[in-house]
Amino acid sequence: MKNTIKALFICALIIICAIALTKFVPNSEAPMDITSKEESSEELLKQQTTTAIATIVTKQLLENAILNITIAQQQDGQHVELLLQSNEFVDEATLLMDTYNILHEVQDIEHIKQITVRWHRLVENKNTEVLTLTVSKKTLATLSDSSHEKLPELADVYEKHPVLQ
Predict the structure, then answer these.
(1) Which residues on neighbouring strands pair with residue 115, listed in sequence order?
(2) Which of 81, 93, 145, 165 has its CA 20 to 30 A from that of 130?
(3) Measuring CA to CA, which residue among 4, 3, 165, 157 is closest to residue 81?
(4) Residue 15 neighbours by CB under 8 Å, 6+ apart
């Protein structure tokens, strides 16, 4: 009697597993939803880029300075916006040096075609954007041949708040 119950239990378990597999494992003969696969690979690429940038920033700045990372997928590649927080005593030269060090490593992420770095700091007790620069992949490739002092000239967009004057 015990052997019969064991056999029935095992059969029931096998049937339950088979039903679960047919419900949760997609049929290879069924038509594939190409859009969702493209979206999921795009999302995966965004996650990988976000992780890579966060790792670079944390390594370079040795502090939690990331306010936000936004990635927009364009036809030519990813356009990244990196918002960073500095302390209120940092000057333009230090921000440029930190940005240069970050960008120097970001240039190795091949699917980034453009990156904008926006630095914020307290100005009169209000968190204010004090430095913004945007560089293209082409500009990123030339960073090794220049220094942080050249960033204002190399950047496609360079804006600074009067507090950095």
Answers:
(1) 80, 135
(2) 145
(3) 157
(4) none
